[in-house]
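Batch manifest, entry 17 of 40.
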Amino acid sequence: MKTPLVSLAAVLLAGSPLLAQSSQDGALPYYVETPGVTEFTGRLTVRPLQLDALIEQGYDRATAVAIHEAASLRLQPWLHEFVADTDEYILQIPAEFDENSLTAHLLAFGEYEYAEPDWFCYLTNQTPDDPAFGNQWQHGKMLSTQAWEFGFGDGTFIACTVDTGVDLDHPDLEDALISGYNSVNRKSQANGGNVNDLNGHGTATIGCVGAIGNNGVGVVGMAWDIKLMPVRTSNSSGGGASMGDITNGVRWASDNGARSVSASYSGVNSSTVGTTGTHVRNEGTLLCWSSGNGGNRISGFDHANVTVVSASNSSDNVTSWSTYGPLVDVTAPGEAVRTTSLGGGNAAVSGTSFSAPIVNGVFAMMMIMNPSATAGEIEQLMFDNCVDIGNAGQDEKSGWGRPNFFQCLKEASKAEHGWTNTIELTGPTSANVGNTVTYNWTGGQSSATWNFYYSFNPYGSQQANRHLNIGTPRVSVGSGTNSVAGAGSFSKKLPNAAAGRRVYLEVTDSDAGWITDSNMLILDIN
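Output type: structure tokens
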């Protein structure tokens, strides 16, 4: 004799941590969203009770099969995808239901093992677990953790350093290395060219570009997940090289798939550097070159197709020993920056030698974010998204300024999708609970309606002619009308419950319900 059919889902969900206390008529919703952790997608994953479970309840096999078939058939009108391997049905929730009401409706039949949201899940860690990451001040200054919310690389992009070689067995590099080249001998690594590091300089520069992140080892580069091409351009223990060998290495790298290349040598004022930069730019490759460490001014040239980099310190000042002049395009961390070292470890190093590969890594990530952009467009996007740390505008020591890594990737992403937002949103990026924060913006539509939103979700989307910088769910905390000049302001006191959260803030202009402009900032609440 069969036993009463009892839903296993009721038993399973009774102890689920996803159950929440309800404020409505004492009922318990089955599921609640945790913004930025697990969020609803408008889909449900459902599994009918399996035959063995039905038979254990006292049904004969024929009846169990009939119940299972009926349960499966009931789901067909809403079927999004059937997973045959696990006998799961992913349903598109119809308009008359939501995640909780459809779950309750299905479980009432007593024929399903479970019904649960097809959760939208987030990466659990955008901050790498590399033990020396906390000693890499350059990442904090350049907002790297925020930038990495756009991604860590694509596993295929090739960046190159033309230097003294690389420690081929370094645990923070070896899995990212691809076959390189010895430009002194004009011989590829695959054909016997020696790329072993002569003195550690090359291992340090290539680690600035792309030391592997989140692997529990050492440090992390600007790009976690790219391919690193070592070009050794010296066979001398001191690392010195002829300009002909350096430029040959740059050209070989470009010819063999590298789209961003850096050379950490003196001699940037040589005409052949500019000629080489133009040659590889025409192939779609960006070339970075260190400005030098003499603290002197050089003039009389400015290579149009080479990104020349000076060094900045943790106070966001250009170092006194950086060579400067009209040649400088940008500055980047170069004093006591921590990177990979010969022998498998890591160390703090100083010099424009290390500023150039940091920019190389930023270029790599920007090109990954916007693969359709030309090399020149990527360079200009970087110039447009630098923190102006010197004299206003372009100057001889810092160029256009120090790249804001996060802003560079955000703008590269926007450009890839054709977004042309003009709002400039300014305000604090860190504040304590109980304080009132104020955000101001300019560049909006004249007298347009604005909305100010927050979300715990960093991932934006493009929906039907509207650009959303932050993801969903997003909550509007204020609205109003821009001034005739397109400016506006919003203030909010931070509640105690927000302590320890990272919040994504967005202001939008709306015209007849469509978002025409928007911009985003990140706020860390202490």
